[in-house]
Amino acid sequence: MHALAPFSLASVIVTALLATHAHAACPSPPPPVRDVTLARYYSDAAGSKVDPELAEQHRRETAPLTAFVGFVTKQADKAHLQRSLPTDTAACALSWINGWAAAGAYLGAIDGKQAEAQRKWDLAGIALAYLKLKQWATAEDRAGIEPWLLKVADSARAHFDDPGVKRNNHWYWMGLGLGAVGIAAESDKHFQMAKGIMQNASRDISTGGVLPLELARQARALHYHAFAAMPLVTLAELAASKGEDWYALGDGALHRFVAKTVAGLEDPAVFDKLAGAAQERPVKSGAGWIALYRARFPERLKHVPKQSSAHRWLGGDVGVLHKVLTQ
């Protein structure tokens, strides 16, 4: 009995050290943000010219949101990629989401269209990150997080009941948020709403593979086609994980859209002509959607523009997301 005492004491010390290390490795999240007020940062009605001063103001105002979503998505990826203690990493990310959920983050006063846009972008990123983390979530985690995700999704969706709100790329990002929440929180209602938005998108895409409302963005038309591709391709991948082929909707509308957007990224002059305005160069290709599309349809992309494989609004690294959806 007494011979075991030193071992027991050592175990206590090691356990305490591990607990201290785990605590130190999981910093405190930024204070939850319930109310979001953001001003538009474009200097023209078409949304083609970014005002540098307003853009910098926007960066400062969204810093807490960027920090929160960025940390959660990176931790979700880390939990899947690290070889040891993934549970601790996941628990840290889940604790952050739980904290913001308990405080009703994003459920206060959302003032302005830019604030509404931010909420649905962040919703998509958080829901996709949670989808990655769900295998480690406890019953208490699920009870705290999933009802909150559903509330944020419903509040964000209600913004589009205003007939004055354009159903352009913002509508498609709303679809991704709804689809991610639908799967993560196991709500068929929200998944079906996402499907309805994808059906809208398939009708919006022309026979030539363009989105008229995004062409209207003049010098940033190609930028916004690539930006719209992010939620649409990711949403199609969510559907594929449930055995549904949303790429085929509208006689392959999403295929046409991807082909035209990739052609523009390879040669922006394609969109110079389509939009009737010289495209902003260099053109941002968005993130993640090319990797997801190529993983499913390698034969359709002969030329692959360079782009990041990760973005916080896509829940982090799309390679990890692909593995989670296909496992």
Jot down its keywords.
327 residues; mainly alpha; two-stranded parallel sheet; 14 helices; globular
Description of the molecule:
With 327 residues, this protein is mainly alpha-helical. The N and C termini lie far apart (48 Å). The strands form two sheets. A two-stranded parallel sheet has the order 1-2. Strands 3-4 form a two-stranded antiparallel sheet. It is built from 14 helices and four strands. Mean pLDDT is 91; it is low at 1-23.
Quick structural gist:
With 327 residues, this protein is an all-alpha fold. The protein has helices at residues 5-25, 52-61, 63-81, 86-102, 113-133, 139-158, 169-184, 188-204, 212-215, 221-240, 249-266, 269-275, 289-296, 318-326; strands spanning 36-37, 110-111, 310-311, 316-317. The strands form two sheets. The protein has a two-stranded parallel ribbon. Strands 3-4 form a two-stranded antiparallel ribbon.
